[in-house]
Amino acid sequence: MSLKVSKRRPLVAQSEIRNMSIECARVGGINLAQGVCDLPVPDVVIQGAEEAMERGSNIYTRFDGRPELRKAIAAKQQRTRGMDVNPEGQVVATAGATGAFYATCLALLDEGDEVIVFEPYYGYHTVTLASLGIKPVYVTLAPPSWDFTAQSLEDVVTSKTRAIILNTPSNPAGKVFTREELTIIADFSEAHDIFVFTDEIYEHFVYDGREHISPATLPGMAKRTITISGLSKVFSITGWRLGYALCDPEWALAIGHFHDLVYVCAPAPLQIGAARGLDELGPEYYQGVSDDHQMKRDLFCNALRDIGLTPHVPEGAYYTLADVTSLPGNTAKERALHLLETTGVACVPGSAFYTGPVGETLVRFCFAKELPVLEDAITRLRKL
Ligand code: PLP
Predict the structure, then answer these.
(1) Do 296 and 374 belong together in one domain?
(2) Same domain, yes or no, for 19 and 70?
(3) How far is Cα 344 from Cα 360, in angstroms, rounded to an integer?
(4) Is 65 helix (H, G, I), strand (E, B) or coil?
(5) What's the pLDDT tens digit per position in 323-335?
(6) 271 and 368 in one domain?
(7) What is the CATH number of the domain that holds 333?
(8) Ligand 1 in reach of 354 Cβ (< 6 A)
(9) Contact 162, 194 (CB under 8 A)
(10) Do both 224 and 337 map to the same domain?
């Protein structure tokens, strides 16, 4: 028999995040590996979806999503970011931010292209690129504030570079890009005439009074920026698969057509539930989400510091990278497994976010857990 898997098959393995979740379930541990937000889903979101199902909104939607969701997203983007997007033509509702990112890559990039990615990176970004024959080219951010320079971008750009990806606030570093840094990226992308793909899924998880800035709102950036975000994290509905891409109508149509090809549409009644949430939840809801996670960040990072796993305290998102060189083992994976075996707390080896050896010195914890679960994890970690 000469049947075989595709050439791209070896490029896509089970993610280290899922691996650790499986290991964690095996030992009945506390899973701080996967980025699942444990907060309750807002009532209005659930009710909106239930009513939509009962009313019969259970069929395919238009390729770019239900009108009420597109309108609600555009209004929210104007309200919170001062960004103008037309719900007719500039909003594509997608199967999560993941679906938006995949459709964007399919629509705008070709095999052989190069894309600049900041390291530490989110694995789905780099593996998606690699699976499409696109080469991720890395610019490593320098802790503690995860800095980069204009020169570091110039050093990696080539005639094949077609886009730069940023993730603000970032997973796993928790970096919130400042206006000055975004201006460097804007100038760079204009000078080299490349796209900016910006994953803003953690836009509502920003701490210490920092501001989340959408790169598309910088002068001259609207046309070349694809803004990607979603409802998974902010409404705690990671299993609903709802996200969106916002961009110029020319790109939106292409992204929408590829999204249609792969997913047809995002789940219809759930789109209506999310639209209700976006329309009806006020600023106090979003502030509450940020405050709750800032409190958990402080609690968890202080505990890590106490036990000698020095954390990089995040400015946003809900992960912390911690130094695990004090633990036995030669690799981050060995150290993460040691931690799981001795404390019952699962984390992700830093090697999942780095190409080079730095990742072997770090692990990532997710602190978006219900308070009693987080406290239990801290008690267990203190036994180290
Ligand atoms: N983008 C980043 C940076 C993430 O960390 C995650 C989830 O962990 C996602 C996207 C996934 O978003 P969604 O559930 O909307 O596909």
Answers:
(1) yes
(2) no
(3) 20
(4) coil
(5) 999 999 999 999 9
(6) no
(7) 3.90.1150.10
(8) no
(9) yes
(10) no
Cα-to-centroid distance, 62 and ligand 1 (Å): 23
Pick the last residue of a domain from 263, 280, 297: 280
CA of 232 to the centre of ligand 1 (A): 8
Residue nearest to atom 3 of ligand 1 (CA): 171
Q: Which residue has the tokens 């505990």?
A: 303
Structure tokens at 170: 């970032």
Query: Which of 16, 101, 124, 231 best tests ligand 1's pocket when mutated (most atoms within 8 Å of CB)?
Result: 124
Residues 377 and 322 in one domain: yes
Domain count for the chain? 2
CA distances for 37 relative to 45, 184, 264, 347, angstroms: 16, 32, 27, 15
Question: Which of 36, 41, 122, 198, when mutated, tests ligand 1's pocket best, judged by the most ligand atoms within 8 Å of its CB?
Answer: 122
Query: How far, in Å, is the centroid of ligand 1 from the Cα of 201?
Result: 6
Domain end point (choices 264, 280, 296): 280
Work out which ligand 1 atom sits closest to the CA atom of 167: 3
Query: Considering only CA atoms, which residue is closest to atom 7 of ligand 1?
Result: 35
Same domain, 192 and 111: yes
**210 CA from centroid of ligand 1 (Å):** 21
213 vs 77: CA distance, rounded Å: 11
**Model-level pTM greater than 0.85?**
yes
pLDDT tens digits for 178-212? 999 999 999 999 999 999 999 999 999 999 999 99
Is residue 4 included in any domain, yes or no?
Answer: no
128 lines ligand 1 (CB under 6 A): no
Q: What are 27-55's pLDDT values in tens digits?
A: 999 999 987 777 899 999 999 999 999 99
Distance (Å) from CA 215 to ligand 1 centroid? 18
3-state helix, strand, coil in the chain (%, to 5): 45, 15, 40
Task: Looking at the structure, tell me whether residues 127 and 253 fall in a common domain.
Answer: yes
Is residue 165, in this structure, part of any structural domain at all?
Answer: yes
Structural domain span for residue 162? 43-280
Nearest of 330, 314, 335, 312 to residue 322 by alpha carbon: 312
Nearest atom, ligand 1, residue 243 CA:
15
**Is there a single domain that holds both residue 233 and residue 367?**
no
